[in-house]
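Let's do one together. I've listed all components of the complex below, 883 residues spread over two lines.
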Amino acid sequence: MSLVTTRPGTGAARPYAFPVIRRVTAHGGTIIAAHLPGQILASALLLLDAGAARESDGREGTATVLAKSLEEGTRKRDSAAYALALESLGAELSPAVDWDTFRVGVSAPGPLLADAVRLAAEAARTPKLDPADVARVRDDEVTALRMDWAQPGPRADAALRADLFGAEGRYSRPLHGDPTSVAAVTVDDVLAFHEAWLRRPGVLVVAGDLDALDLAALAEAAFEGTSGELLEQSGPLPVLLPPRRRTILVDRPDSVQSTLRFGHRAPERATPDYVPMTLAATVLGGAFTSRLNHLIREVKGYTYGIRGSYAMSRRWGRFEVAAGVQTAVTAPAIRDTLGEIARTQAEGVTEAELEVARSWRAGQLSVEMQTPGAIAGALSTLVVHGLPDDYYETLRTEYLEASVEQVSKAAAEHLAVDSLTLVVEGDGAVIRDELGEFGELVDSDI
Amino acid sequence: MTSPSAPVATTGYPWPIETTRLANGLRVVVSEDRTAPVVCVNLWYDVGSRHEPPGQTGFAHLFEHLMFEGSQHVKKTEHMKLVQGNGGSLNATTNPDRTNYFETMPSEHLELALWLEADRMGGLVPALTQETLDNQREVVKNERRQRYENVPYGDAWLRLLPLLYPEGHPYHHSTIGSMEDLNGAALDTFKAFHQQYYAPNNAVLTVVGDTSAAEVFALAEKYFGAIATVPDIPAAPDGSLPGPATEAVRESVTAKVPAARIYLSHRTFPFGTAGYDAVTVLSMVLGSGRGSRLYQRLADGARIAQPDYIGAYGVDLAHAPAPLIITATAKDGVSLETLEAGLAEVVQSLIDEPVTDDELNRAKALLTTAWWRGVSTVGGRADLLGRYATQFGDPATAADRLPKWLAVTSDDVTEAARQVLRPESRVTLTYVPGEPS
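Okay, and this is what the predicted structure of the assembly comes out as:
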């Protein structure tokens, strides 16, 4: 009696298909819905062209304060009555702000989704926004940001963003603002942001069993009483790379780990190089067996995990490596990380590595898209980046057909190890001296 | 619009379940669902930190790491490469009760996943080297730094456990364990730990998704059938306790934290009992969502607690009375004493003020959505069935949980509160900002 010694082969694969998409245009807005037969839950996400990029200088965080004020009561009911009405449907509101959109999401059992969307729209379109409530929410948000900024990471992220996007206005500041900018947000800022951007119809993405959902009723719930034309989009930002590397130290006295955030700018999400770039980053730092995780975690034992990836929005992208490493090995960990980035940039990827990356990315389109929430998120990517309905089928094919040459070329063109900004958040008293070897060292004022 | 009552559910598991047991004792659970071309393979091993003897704390969790480092026919690093390189997602977790391993794959790779799991169940020990052990000890130390030591309040759970459970109780020590114990043990001690607990008769294999019971049963026999039964696996120490604690306990921490925070905790009932079902509903009424009593009274009403950091939740442990944890963080200018008095008053209200129909319906509606969200993936379903097979002997009983929650009455909640939330059984852990002493 013994274990089976040889690895089994692969069975017959079923063809991949993204759920069937239906569209309804009514009351000035559009519904884009994906059919998930048999799903008990359904998700809806209202997408409004009102992302953080629309905030004013020095008032970064206005949209986030608005998002958190939506549930402080509507013109119809106070905050306690609103919470009871929504939560009695089994739904909770998740208003969120990213660079490109303001999103208001709800999930509920299918038969209750229309009522949940009606309540979500009531909060998004007609919130009470009592000045005293808005001021209190603003103050709470300042406190919440201070809580968040006491964790390792947010200060390093802010320092990296300021350095990469220093010339790009709003994009140089954190997505949700910082404690100072949020403290400066006024009640009038919040009211004006709502008036300007949240009364427009937008797009409602829906995922669930469409045989049990009334899309016309959902459209009425989401769009009735709205007005305004589609807004003009600005083009992508140029990819500016500095001539040399620099290191920024964010002091965190007594820290037992150094938080690493390395990055440089890259193209926006709609770039034609998206697939080879993603695969290159997967080989370098995306999969568990990636070059970075293998060396820094599995061979050296410096970290619990390290990742490298491209983050992309409508107008810009960036390459980033993120990790927490033991304080005592900060410099060796940085040296090894830069070595792997340089190697990938110079030599590209191998067929064996690319085979893992291709199959993983393609398989994830089925494995990680099972729930209504995940499908709604996938639909929102189509909306925000102007991608076609058959995008995911095409994407899967492109992943599977990408060649070593294409991916190595993308690594050479979109990795720039000598232009990286290296942000290190850690115990300055211990690590400062050893950071000198990586180029010009400056202290962060964040 | 009126608020409807929670939707009626007669079953929380409307999918088929089929089971078998191999001759070596491995239990196999299959739930077919052809909706998507994906399949999840999940193994529950009945070994958690509660099984660890003194001097071996952290062993169960370290094994969760070692299980990804190669086995008899799978080279080091190959496990991850084969799962991800065939499109899959994988992970593993350890808690006081058990250790679970799972991968969701495109369904054409079902057989690969079963082969990988069988090889590390039956063939880990021959492949385990000193180098791998040393490396993964370092990774675990980094995990401890990252998750517990380098974040404000990160050690709260490590501090609560010994306050909740007496010395010698299987839940007294944390799953991450002691670094001294991990450092002190030799390779052979770890090998012995695997040979003791990673046995077919100590595991449940659950497969959910795009396959059939007949196919899985045959493949289970093919890959796991040769692994030998391990006789006389020692049970974990008895976790039963005479009742709620009889003396309040308190620990005060001064640390680099941004605001004062309080954790109140009580031992309640074991997960799976009627008492714990009532506590599950109670925790929603008390601390889940903006309509909860904690939010309404302390964040929205008295405005002494930060709205983003208030809540209550049970930790679903099955082998001893499970903890309920209640937490709030002070707003600027609010003293710890004020916050604690406010929290105590809201907790006491569950004993003194009956839960209203609106509160009960809200709690049940939120639990209903949470339940269906949990089973909306093949991975969520596989873990659920593995849990009920391991802890209650029958995966089909998973279907009863949601109906049992929905049958909890206002009186049940009050009675549970009366039994387990009394101040004299309370553990209080407080953090205040300052230089650590």
